[in-house]
Design goal:
The chain has 18 helices and 25 strands. The protein is an alpha+beta fold. The N and C termini lie far apart (about 75 Å). Helix 2 runs antiparallel to helix 10 (about 340-350).
């Protein structure tokens, strides 16, 4: 059997080039001969490219309505063998595959609510796949809700029936907390069924698409739980062979369940046929699957050996698939996702082993080394078992925990420090010292910090809680679409930059001079920037069209790692995916204001939604600090709080993935610049001359203020005091967060 494997990047490029040329000829219907593309190439390239060219031709012939056979290719050149050709030629391609699958489960997917199969009563259809359909059903004797996978014997071949029965046999072998349980199986009036555990949750492919990549700690938990489930399957002589995010279900309590054991190959048995989806509560998307035929898995998670010797695959292929899954969970992208489909298949065999740290510099080196071992091209270079993967994760977490755990004496000092902070915070807020004052409308304000009177070591979060108690207001408030607001207490602060040290740069001139400002009234501020999902709700409810979407409008998008102007918008930004939890960007000031207007039209109780003034924004960002950034003046720590030029890779990131400031607000520094209510009057001196109590900006000028900096900003330009201004009609990839007044 051919081992189409190389470590030479030049070879990969040559294979990709040959595939591109051949596919272009197929698209032009030139009927190219594969042999013509095999001239004057090395044996290494020959071994890698022949299977890809054959697969391309077979696929295009099927889409033209032809029926290619293994005999058409056998003996013409060195291919992975007759078995491989038979598998390839029996795989349905294009729209024809959809038609066949639709016919296959036509009966199974049309069962009405109330239909009885044995002891089960059908309630609702959860999804349909190549192996029939999955329903929510009720088991009458035990009154238990189950996921019932149903397959119509009358609609399928004997081979497909055998596949379903193999799935039942595989599921029966497994009983583990991290594997979806199988309860029962049977046949009723031409219907085969498999009753499985009904899980309240979603698969991890859906989770990442909805909420964005997981944190490192979350990913460790997921990978460890998946490894535990797979280790159990391996001990039962089962190899899953299609480990991927869509086959890992995560419950609302963050428990991970392995799906689709029906794809597993039973030890010492012939390989099973492909069953695209599992008996889960919701069918996962069948992304990049090979169609019905011998199982080859899913391209983006396919071990190199699976593409050339599927019958000889063992548990080490599952380790490879789990490694590829880990990368997707942390980055939102599978390995080699920048390549076309066939070239991705080649890349898994010949491309250099990737590094997660290339995309996520904060990913620990020890874990990256483990990941790279898991996705090694040669099976013998991977961890020897899932138990070894689990041990490596446990060892890392143990070292990490010990590194973070303070000593007993250290804990005592910390406890006394916290106690002292609470007492001092209460005294500062409520005390009748010389600095204690009352603001407008009778609201007590926090003490002023001046350059010659350094701020006491007070816990701002404690002051925030004390203010909520004193004012009789909740610390948190919920808004529409899951929007979370935090109370910002009234107080004084020093707004802007001083003119010392790094603050002398040209970009800092707009924030001179530093001056005292009073925020006289409490208000609420959204914990995160307005998300894509939240803005979509507004657009869908109102039919609103943003300015970049109007005729002639333009915005910013990213193609091949280059930002450029074009016909982009808040919902389409070119060549990288947008998740529901991404900040909504590419919005003008008017688009942000329109969202607030809509919230006010639909709100009840007298509260008002608005864009914060820049004074309110900076006061909330500082959260009691007088340093360059809300966390302090140590630039080395900034990567823990912000996405900016150093760590963003020039792409936006889902909200709340970094640490919040002391008042619980995320992404005040970086990610995306946020529109404020204020006009920019064009006069830098106005910044100091305006009112010192609740300033609202200039009354003239077409530009509006932006705060916080973005993914393209340097560290200096995402400081708490940094200011920018843009025309209100200019999207500039602009985002915003919403403020909420008291009723």
């Amino acid at each position: 059997m051919i081992q189409a494997r190389t470590s030479n990047l030049a070879t990969l490029r040559q294979v990709n080039s040959l595939c591109d040329r051949f596919e272009s000829a197929l698209l032009a219907e030139e009927s190219p001969r594969i042999e013509d593309y095999l001239q004057d190439i090395s044996r290494e390239v020959l071994q890698a490219v022949v299977p890809q060219l054959v697969a391309l031709e077979v696929d295009y012939r099927k889409m033209r309505g032809e029926s290619p056979a293994a005999e058409d290719y056998s003996g013409r050149f060195e291919t992975p063998g007759r078995e491989w050709l038979d598998q390839l030629c029996t795989i349905s391609g294009g729209n024809r595959s959809t038609a066949i699958e639709t016919e296959r489960h036509a009966v199974a997917s049309k069962l009405e609510a109330g239909t009885r199969l044995g002891d089960y009563v059908i309630e609702t259809l959860l999804g349909a796949g190549g192996m029939g359909a999955v329903y929510r059903a009720n088991h009458l004797p035990m009154h238990r809700q189950v996921a019932l996978k149903v397959f119509s014997v009358n609609d399928a071949s004997a081979v497909s029936q055998k596949r379903f029965r193999r799935e039942v046999e595989a599921a029966a072998r497994l009983s583990h907390p991290n594997v979806v349980r199988a309860y029962d199986a049977g046949e009723h009036e031409g219907m085969l069924y498999l009753a499985m555990e009904l899980i309240d949750g979603e698969n991890l492919h859906q989770r990442v698409l909805r909420s964005g990549p997981l944190s490192v700690d979350q990913s460790i938990s997921v990978i460890r739980q998946a490894a535990l489930g797979l280790a159990h399957a391996h001990r039962q002589s089962l190899v899953h062979r299609d480990v991927k995010p869509a086959n890992l279900l995560i419950t609302h309590s963050d428990e991970v369940k392995l799906l689709d054991v029906g794809l597993a190959r039973l030890g010492n048995r012939p390989p099973l046929l492909n069953s695209p989806q599992s008996g889960s509560a919701e069918l996962a998307p069948n992304t990049n699957f090979t169609a019905d035929g011998q199982l080859m898995g899913t391209i983006d998670y396919l071990a190199p050996e699976q593409a050339v010797e599927p019958a000889k695959v063992n548990h080490l292929a599952d380790i490879y698939g789990l490694g590829c899954t880990w990368k997707f969970l942390l980055t939102g992208k599978p390995c080699y996702d920048h390549l076309p489909l066939i070239q991705r298949l080649v890349a898994h065999q010949v491309a250099p082993v990737p590094s997660i740290r290339d995309t996520c510099p904060d990913f620990p080196r020890d874990l990256d080394r483990l990941f790279q071992r898991m996705v090694a091209k040669r099976p013998d270079k991977r961890p020897a078992s899932m138990e070894e993967v689990i041990d490596s994760l446990d060892a890392f977490e143990s070292r990490d925990l010990n590194a973070k755990k303070p000593s007993r004496s250290r804990r005592l000092v910390l406890s006394l420090a916290v106690l002292g902070t609470v007492v001092l915070g209460a005294a500062l807020y409520w005390g009748k010292s010389e600095d204690g004052r009352s603001g407008q409308d009778g609201y007590a304000t926090a003490a002023v910090t001046t350059p010659d009177a350094p701020q006491p070591s007070v816990d701002p979060a404690q002051l925030q809680k004390q203010a909520a108690l004193r004012l009789g207001l909740p610390l948190h408030r919920l808004g529409p679409d899951g929007m979370k607001f935090l109370l910002i207490p009234p107080g004084d602060f020093l707004m802007g930059s001083d003119q010392t040290g790094q603050d002398k740069s040209r970009t800092s001139s707009l924030s001179f001079p530093q001056h005292r400002v009073t925020i006289s009234k409490p208000y609420y501020l959204a914990q995160t920037e307005t998300t894509l999902a939240q803005y979509r709700s507004f657009v869908e409810a109102t039919g609103y069209v943003t300015r970049p979407e109007l005729p002639g409008g333009t915005a910013w998008g990213k193609e091949q790692d280059v930002w450029k102007r074009g016909r982009y918008s808040w919902k389409e930004m070119g060549g990288y995916p947008l998740y529901d939890e991404h900040p909504a960007v590419n919005l003008t000031w008017y688009d942000a204001q329109a969202y607030c207007d809509w919230l006010n039209e639909t709100s009840e109780g007298g509260a008002r939604y608005f864009l914060p003034t820049e004074a309110q924004w900076e006061y909330a960002c500082r959260a009691g600090s007088v340093s360059s950034w809300s966390h302090g003046s140590d630039q080395a720590q900034l990567i823990e709080y912000a996405w900016y030029m150093k760590n963003s890779h020039w792409v936006f990131h889902p909200v709340a993935k970094k640490r919040p400031n002391a008042w619980g607000l995320y992404d005040m520094h970086g990610n995306e610049a946020e529109w404020c209510a204020d006009r920019f009057g064009g006069e830098a001196s106005y910044y100091d001359r305006r009112p010192k109590v609740d300033p609202k900006g200039s009354e003239t000028g077409s530009k509006r203020i932006q705060r916080g900096g973005s993914i393209l900003s340097k560290a200096h330009d995402i400081r708490s005091a940094s200011r920018a201004h843009q025309e209100a009609t200019e999207p500039t990839k602009g985002g915003f967060r919403v403020a909420l007044s008291l009723p």
